[in-house]
Amino acid sequence: MTSFDYKALAEQYLIPWGANIGFALLILIIGIMISKWIVNLVCRGMRHAKFDDMLIKFVTSLLKWSLYFIFIIAALNRLGVPTTSFIAVLGAAGLAIGLALKDSLQNFAAGVMLIMFRPFKTGDSIEAGGASGVVEDVQIFSTTMRTADNREIVVPNGDIFSGKITNNSARDTRRIDLVVAIGYDDDLREAKRTLEQVINKEKRILSDPEPLVAVGELNASSVDILVRPWVKTSDFFATKCELTENIKLALDDSGISMPFPQMDIHVNHANSSSSDGLKMG
């Protein structure tokens, strides 16, 4: 009966495999420690540079898992796993998943661009992606907005980034654009004086830039006067509503009409005697 050679088994298999497993675990442990140190360093640097919190979370998360992947590949390579084939399989699987999730990846890429370039931030009033409202949250795949009537709208980031973005809160001041139409029979100078008095009484209207009151166009049935004062962005909507009402009341008090489109028809009647003569003939 032959005896089993435990010493040869240990020398050929157990010791080499044990050493490789130990080195692989050491690589993973040291890799995790190094990854956390790099991620924390990048996080502190981005916070010091006052980057957006959403961008910081995204970058640090992407960096962490990228570093983890590198150290996992290194550990598998130490164990003798053919990592080249493994990476090729992962690449093919990633390509298939990317083709299947084309629209989602488009929204993902757009979310990254929105977070990096920051055309708007939380709390801004914007018009984008066919919707308008106040931005409540910017995520990787979508942006959540709240409308003026307190509805919640979730817009895919791809629709936002691929179109025009209007940020109503980007500047400290905004201009109110009103067109006041008066009749041709009304006193134009008196109308302009009345409009200027209404503007001067409104405390929220800024003196710089100076408000504009000027004739903009001579329409078929009215003289159009442009009224363009500047206000703080936060006062825009309330000031516009009150200014519109005060203008109407002031023009009524001054006896100045605000005409609507109309057509005058003049009927010419033929001479009655001529008409009778024609009938007699």
Structure notes:
The protein is an alpha+beta fold and 281 residues long. It has three domains: 9-100, Helix Hairpins; 119-167, SH3 type barrels; 173-253, Alpha-Beta Plaits (2-Layer Sandwich). The chain is built from eight helices and ten strands. It has helices spanning 6-48, 53-78, 83-100, 102-117, 157-161, 188-201, 236-253, 272-280, and strands at 125-128, 131-138, 142-146, 152-156, 166-167, 173-175, 178-182, 212-218, 223-228, 230-232. The strands form three sheets. Strands 4-3-2-1-5 form a five-stranded antiparallel β-sheet. Strands 7-9-8 form a three-stranded antiparallel β-sheet, covered by helices on one side. A hairpin with a 2-residue loop joins β1 and β2 (131-138). The chain is elongated. 14% of the residues are buried. The mean pLDDT is 84.
Structure in a nutshell:
The chain is an alpha+beta fold and 281 residues long.
The top level CATH class name of the largest domain: Mainly Alpha
Written as H for each helix and E for each strand, in order along the chain, the element string is: HHHHEEEEHEEEHEEEHH
Helix content: 40-55%
How does CATH name the architecture of the largest domain?
Orthogonal Bundle
Query: What fraction of the residues are assigned to beta strands by DSSP?
Result: 15-25%
Oligomer: single chain
The chain-level mean pLDDT equals 84
Radius of gyration: 37 Å
The biggest beta sheet, please?
5 strands, antiparallel
Spatial separation of the terminal alpha carbons: 151 Å
Q: Which structural class do the helices and strands define?
A: alpha+beta
Extract low-pLDDT stretches: none
Shape designation: elongated
CATH topology of the largest domain, what is it called?
Helix Hairpins
